[in-house]
Amino acid sequence: MSLVTLTNLTIHHGGNPVLTGVNFNIQAGEIVTVVGPNGSGKSTLLRAIIGALQPSSGQVARASGLRVGYVPQKLHIDPTLPLTVRRFLSLPLRVTNAAATQALEQAGAGRLANQQMAGLSGGQFQRVLLARALLCDPQLLILDEATQGLDQPGSAAFYQQIETVRQHLGCAVLMVSHELHVVMAASDRVICLNGHVCCEGEPEQVASAPEYRALFGSGTQGALALYRHEHNHSHDQDCTHEHHDHEAAQ
Amino acid sequence: MTLLDSFLIRAALAGLGVAIAAAPLGCFVVWRRMAYFGDATAHASILGVALALSFQTSIFTGVLVVSLLMATTVSTLSNRGYAMDTLLGVLAHSALAFGLVAVSFLQGVRIDLMAYLFGDILAVGRLDLAVIWGGALLVLALLWWRWSALLTATLNPDLAYAAGIDPRREQLVLTIALALVVAVAIKVVGVLLIAAMLIIPAATSRPFASTPERMALIAAAIGGLSALGGLQLAFALDTPTGPTIVCLAAVMFALSSLTSLFFRGNRI
Predict the structure, then answer these.
(1) Residue in A68, A88, A90 closest to B162 by CB
(2) ipTM strictly over 0.90?
């Protein structure tokens, strides 16, 4: 069952195309990671899926009654707004204390309920955001660079938590990330985005695709080499768009 | 002979009505950093007074219409890439200036401009009282009804979208509530001081609140206290009532800031 289907999606921002002709779907229970350089339209894609952006053309079809848990890239809470973790979890729908406690436990943020949101550390904050996203019993969990600002052990632990959650709830996960190797290991499917879908497939396929290397080759050095020598098989990607100079990564 | 025959009782009830509606709304104004927005809407309402007098409709209707127009204009323009503070600076003061000029054109009507700029709470009649409480209860009902959605949209528009809430609609709810508060408050504190009734109680209650709801409740209490206390003070000291109410609120804000500074100093 497709939870979300994007058909030929094009989105303009301030007159410039951010996404062009994107086709995408995510099935129940699937983990999909979107990778791409800065400004490649990753966040735009997610915001179109949650309905925060209207497409210039193309369609966004959500399964009827789809429950989405959304963890934003960052959340600025104005210092004039007093907000405990417990109160935050009850937005927008009130939840019982038992449900709140359970969600905090699941997200690895137990015992934070009475703290002020403003007083949390970066890692605690992300876990509370995750806990809130879990409370609607999501069919689809969307994470937008959720580990931004966490150190490497912190983000590794966070992704582990997400995997545990996924096993427990069986929800689909759609995430955007920069941390390629951590993310790729957990994903069923990886989509390489740069204004359009450059290539997609299983993590091994994408990691060794020339389009992917062209995008990440220069920036990731050692991390990329890991994929290059391990996966040397052929694959058939349907890449109909123009790409960057693939030779750059060779 | 009923209780409402006393002008002081009517004034007290009017002040209380405005205060308890303005304070929770003021919390949103503070959280969303819309202080100037409230100011602009309030200042534009003097133009509403002029229009109402020239078309011989009720002041409430004129002010409500112009406030709504002003608030929608600001919301629309702010999404078009103007710098918000510049835009509001232009609109707030030009609306006030146009309003004052428009009032001067009115022939045959002698109006006491001061009463609209600074309020005339002691002249509140039974009908005014009914309008004030009707408006106040409407604002409170709106906020009560949309509370959770408003709070989510205030926190982060994307979180709202993901939960199926349209933040633009919530913004519209706030805009309407703001116009209503301005329309009912003009008689009590006047156009120049309405923003104070919105913002000062909310800012005063911040250090003592741990949740948004508590902040709104404490703000309403502080607003009500300033209205009643200000009225008494004005009576005792023979000072203008609207400004006295705002002065009392400001003193409470100063005390609240000092208290929180002191406690924070102790904790560290």
Answers:
(1) A68
(2) no
